[in-house]
Design brief:
Layout lengths: L10 H29 L7 H34 L1
Helix pairs in contact: 1-2
Length: 81
């Protein structure tokens, strides 16, 4: 295979990227909802929105690290050829 015919990222890498971005984005939106609701004085059911980032941000970080490992392994294989 010539250098101009290198394959792009795999379907797994694309899926991990979108999942990581989605989970981190959802966590950031949840943080903003919690902050705005607290600022406006609302006290009803903010606990669920406050808990989402506690699970989402570490999960998103793990997905991004797995994606980084897969991309590094793919690049290493491409450079060997």
């Amino acid at each position: 295979m010539t250098k101009s015919e290198r394959p792009g990222p795999s379907r797994l890498e694309t899926t991990l990227a979108y999942m990581g971005a989605g989970i981190i984005g959802l966590s950031l939106v949840s943080i903003m909802i919690t902050l705005v609701a607290s600022y406006l004085g609302s006290t009803s059911n903010l606990a669920i929105f406050a808990q989402i980032p506690l699970l989402g941000l570490p999960a998103g970080f793990v997905l991004i690290m797995v994606l980084l490992g897969l991309a590094l392994r793919r690049k290493g294989r491409e450079n060997k050829k």
